[in-house]
Every structure is written in C-alpha cells, then in structure tokens.
Amino acid sequence: MAPLHRLALLLATMSLAAPGSVLAASIWSVESPQEYLALIDSDGDGRVSLREYQDYLGRSAREMDRNGDGLLSANELPPGTRSRGGRPVNLQRQREAFATRFHLQDRNGDRYLDAEELGAPPR
C-alpha cells in the first residue's frame, strides 16, 4: 500500500470515531498528494504549515473532547476503544507527536509541506 494511502487509512480510521467529522467523509476521496494537500491547506497558499497539519490531524480528537479539558478520558472514547493503560489521551502531546512527524516529512527544511513531501513516507 502506498504511503499516502496508509496515512489516509490511519486518518480515516481516527475520524470514524467522530461520525459527524468532515474528515471522515473527505479522506476517502483522496487520489493524489495534491488532493491531500488541498484538504489540509486551510489558507489556500499551496503548502501546509505545521499548524494546518496539526489542526487537520487532530480534528477528530478535538471533536471527541466533549468537556474541552484537552484530555480524552475513557468516557469520551468511542465504545470498544481503550486508551493506553487506561490513561487519558493528552491532546497537547498528540500535537507534539504530529509536529515530530511534520518535521520528518519536511525534507527541504522550509517549515512547510508541499504535495511531494506529504505523499512521501517520513524519514
């Protein structure tokens, strides 16, 4: 399976936890890195910033955080889902993990991802 499709599958799986999510409906239609970029590029400048990347990937988790405390507790997770060791999922740590992935994908070091970088596996 191509790296882009693996990432799309991961994101779609995460989004299924939030049934009303826009992400759930749109991620399955991605056919190319350019289309994936268009989904994430919220300001339309043709590239993805760290904030856009984090916001897009974290959307489902933020929607599940019903009490807005920045943690996904067991009662906020979908039925049949468990957090690691029963501990809540910390959304700030999740954003930090997304930042690490972003920097691994930013191969030219310009602090933005283009379509080619989005479609390539992280280093």
Attribute tags:
Recoverin, domain 1, 123 residues, two-stranded antiparallel ribbon, elongated, 7% strand, mainly alpha
The number of helices is 6
**Total domains:** 1
Counting helices, strands and paired strands, the structural category is mainly alpha
CATH class type: Mainly Alpha
Helix content: 40-55%
Biggest sheet, in brief?
Answer: 2 strands, antiparallel
Q: Reading side by side through the largest sheet, how are the strands ordered?
A: 1-4
Distance between the termini: 17 Å
The number of E-state strands comes to: 4
Which strand-content bin applies to the residues?
A: 5-15%
**CATH topology heading:** Recoverin, domain 1
Q: Mind telling me the C-alpha Rg?
A: 15 Å
Return residue spans where pLDDT drops below 50 for at least 5 consecutive residues: 1-25
- What CATH architecture do you see? Orthogonal Bundle
